[in-house]
Amino acid sequence: MTKRNLNLIFLGPPGAGKGTQAKQVVDKYSIPQISTGDLMRATVSSGSSLSEKLKSYMQAGALVPDQLVLDILIARIDQADCQKGFLLDGFPRTVGQAEELEKALLKRNSPLSGVVSIDVPDEVLTGRLTARRICSKCSASYHLEYLKPQKDGICDRCGGELYQRKDDSEEVIKNRLKVYHEQTSPLVDFYQKKKNLYPVDGNKKIDMIFQEICDIIDRLNSP
Ligand code: AP5
Fold this sequence. Notes:
Layout: E1 6-11, H1 18-29, E2 33-35, H2 36-46, H3 51-60, H4 66-77, E3 85-89, H5 95-107, E4 114-119, H6 122-130, E5 132-135, E6 141-143, E7 162-163, H7 170-184, H8 186-193, E8 197-201, H9 206-221
Parallel strand pairs: 1-3, 1-4, 2-3, 4-8
Antiparallel strand pairs: 5-6, 5-7
Helix pairs in contact: 1-9, 2-3, 4-5, 6-7
The protein binds BIS(adenosine)-5'-pentaphosphate.
């Protein structure tokens, strides 16, 4: 029997730990992590013609219009490293994006394996995001309390300088959470109805959450 692709989605509010968990999952299951946030930050840094447009949405904590994200995402899942599957982190974020993804996967005869929904209360999220620091070289993510770098301001892995994302200010976080509840949280219901949703309590230790997620993936991935 041929093995089906492992096509996963991590759904959850800003700061839920999607990126933190995704980094460990892709190492274990050898599939690429596709973060639409990272893809768009790379487009902004490239200084392309889309750069200023994307920046204005992202720095305000608003969603980038569906069509722009879809074009970038579909081109990415068609790359060779996605042939055995992928992990989408931060996509879809609207019901419209989810419907378009479904059509694209149907066309490629590569259905979704499951959606892991990471749940964390709003009051915890703000504390996580304001204390997050990212490596400017390798994009590793740290937390000033829960995942401290050994040397202040320096990445343990590559020695790169750590910085704070512009959208991790309290004011922008407030808007990102509002946008999440209005536009993204309806996806919980969307995927629940399709019997494709696997909720995980994201308000625990990073290792415990990872174990729970691996148990889910192993079930989804068994022949
Ligand atoms: P994006 O980059 O996707 O950001 P996000 O979804 O807001 O998610 P984050 O990266 O902030 O959080 P995360 O869940 O990955 O948490 P992390 O693991 O880092 O999107 C940015 C912007 O791009 C959007 O606002 C929008 O403008 C645009 N965009 C992106 N995708 C789009 C789309 N599909 N459509 C339209 N627009 C789009 O963890 C956070 C912190 O908590 C870290 O410091 C970490 O160390 C710590 N931490 C993690 N887990 C734990 C734990 N269990 N206990 C304690 N601390 C923890």
